[in-house]
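Q: For a teaching handout, I want to show students what a protein-ligand complex looks like in token form. Below are the inputs, and the small molecule is nicotinamide-adenine-dinucleotide. Please produce the holo structure.
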Amino acid sequence: MGRHRKRFYIGGEWVQPSTSRLLTPINPSTEEVLGSVAEAMEADVDAAVQAARRAFDEPGGWVSWEPARRAEVMDRFAEQLDKRAQTIAELVSSQNGMPISMARRLEIGYPAEVVRYYAGLARTTPFTETRTGVLGGAIEVRRVPVGVVAAIVPWNYPQTLSMFKIAPAMATGCTVVLKPSPEAALDSFLIAEAAEAAGVPDGVINIVPGGRQAGAHLVAHRQVDKVAFTGSTAAGRIIAETCGQLLRPVSLELGGKSAGIILDDVDLDPAMIGEDLIAATLTNNGQTCFLSTRILAPRSRYAEVVDLFTELLRALPVGNALDEGTLVGPLATALQRDRVEGYIAKGRAEGGRITTGGGRPAGLDRGWFVEPTVFADVDNDFVLAQEEIFGPVLCVLPYDGIEDAVRIANDSDYGLGGTVWTSDPERGAAVARRVRTGTIGVNRYAPDPVAPFGGVKASGLGSELGPEGLTTYLRPQSLYV
Ligand code: NAD
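A: Here is the structure, written as tokens, with nicotinamide-adenine-dinucleotide included.
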């Protein structure tokens, strides 16, 4: 059995692909093929961009609708996503290894909330304002949609990250070509079905799953006006280069290596803090960009912190992502497991001390599993502390005083997230404000639709979410009247 989707959703229709090439997403828990999906070639990307272009350029079309009318469509779209929630959760989980209990919390419900949030902003945002000129006369300042958006997403949160782009694009009147990743292409068809059922006008959302080549063709396409990318820093740099040459607006949400600063006053009772610590450091088997995977512990309590993480990670049930009791599933691909194991070997060679994990879990002969792993005795200049591992591997580093903690936290090429753990939230917030990242939490980490989310340095350019996320889909036009 398996799911087979042999057509693309382009211009509101289910269109035959240009070739018979297929993508075959694999279940990382079992290594079984889940089904097949037509793979987009350049001709398919061209067709999708043309459909988005037509929908954007059509006189009296989507772009010229009153924002409140677009918001109505968005509300219906959110409703249709909700209707498909259980199937979406199972598909996501079986494609990328996200534990099903987590997929139900993060990959359904939340993406629809993002759509509703932006529908709300479409209703309330003033898109036009009149100013009195310093030199006299009136000036109408319009904020108009940028146009056709190329949205490219990775496999780790395929639904959420797609809505981070589709929702603000729809709210502003843009049209979208979404390119899902080859590893998690199956669930993207549910987005298409939801759009169709909600009556999203033809060509506003177009979906063409494909690989790197299709993505690169989409980014450089003459008729694309903006690129919204989430993925690795390496791919982000290539995309930024292309967009630089084309002078094309681009937003980039890239990798991370965030610090989790444990202050010396923290209560390390696992019953109090354990769940939040695991959520902030290990969510989705460590395959989340913002995780606080560099744990900074005060030297006076270093051994206690290492022991706490060792116990917490050792106790996590590892298994098939679709089992209700699983808290850590497999890595999404065989390649990803090889990379993570490579980092574990490197960490050992650098002198890191493994206190739990380090290998493959016993009794799981199939599937791309790696044991949740803690490294102690790590210096911040280890590769282990500097590079994004994207797996269930944490390292614990000692620090001497707050200045040292802030220095180590900021001594990174990345700047996406972070956390501070303390019994005194005000003191925690004061430390958090000194960390140079796009987001940071005190005793929790939970990206909210109202708050801009994005990184600095090698973690990206621009923000998604919040009203700030809307502005990257708009450009100003001044009308001297
Ligand atoms: P990836 O960069 O390999 O691929 C991401 C997407 O980009 C895929 O759809 C892929 O097909 C496409 N792609 C790859 N190269 C391309 C190119 N040159 N031109 C156009 N498209 C291209 O990343 P991945 O391994 O799928 O995802 C993991 C990475 O994503 C991690 O580094 C993680 O930190 C990052 N990520 C960042 C955020 C964030 O919001 N900052 C969120 C989730 C994941």
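A: Two things your students might notice: The pocket of nicotinamide-adenine-dinucleotide is lined by residues 152-157, 161, 179, 181, 211-212, 215-216, 219, 230-232, 235, 238-239, 253-256, 289, 388, 390, 416, 455, 460 (CB under 6 Å). The chain is about 40% helix and 20% strand.
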